[in-house]
Amino acid sequence: MHLTKNLDVLALTHTFTRITINYYKMRMNYLFVVIFACFFTACRQKPLLGRAAAEEQLDKALEITNDIVKPGRFLIDKKDDAVAIAEVYLFSAFGKGEITDQRPYEIYLIDHYWVMNGTLPLGVDGGNFELVLDAETGEVKRLVETR
Where does the chain have alpha helices with state H? Predict the structure, then answer.
């Protein structure tokens, strides 16, 4: 009887071991599927909209006459933002060195427009820039260098 009891324990141990092994195999298969799905998703490229979609966006933007901000609010409402945006255009048009030499800038918000001028030290010959920036849309209305 003692031998039968040992055989029963051995059979139960063997069954438990097989269940445990099958459980871990199932978990490994699940893990493999999850990893494969993540890899497949990560490797997939995002579709490009293409030039036709960009042209459609442009046509829509040109049809609408002020579809940027809520009425009564400015897209560029702070002096520092106006200077930062203006400098992008100015550096591109005239060079960073020439524009930074004209600091400090004169800048005023007048009737929904930022009017900005470069300054030169007294006695320095040369021109300065003049820039007018629409505060509602960010559009450059005037960008010239005076002489």
Answer: 2-43, 50-63, 79-94, 96-100
Spatial contact of 83 and 131, defined as CB atoms under 8 Å apart: no
User: How many angstroms separate the Cα of 101 from the Cα of each of 97, 119, 120, 124, 143?
Assistant: 6, 8, 7, 11, 17
* Cβ(74)–Cβ(112) below 8 Å: yes
pLDDT given at position 93: 95
At 62, the amino acid letter reads: L
* pTM of the predicted structure, to 2 decimals: 0.57
Residue 83 sits at φ, ψ, to 5 deg, of -65, -45
- Which amino acid belongs to residue 107? I
CA–CA distance from 49 to each of 38, 57, 60, 62, 63 (Å)? 24, 11, 16, 19, 21
What is the token pair recorded at 64?
């609408």
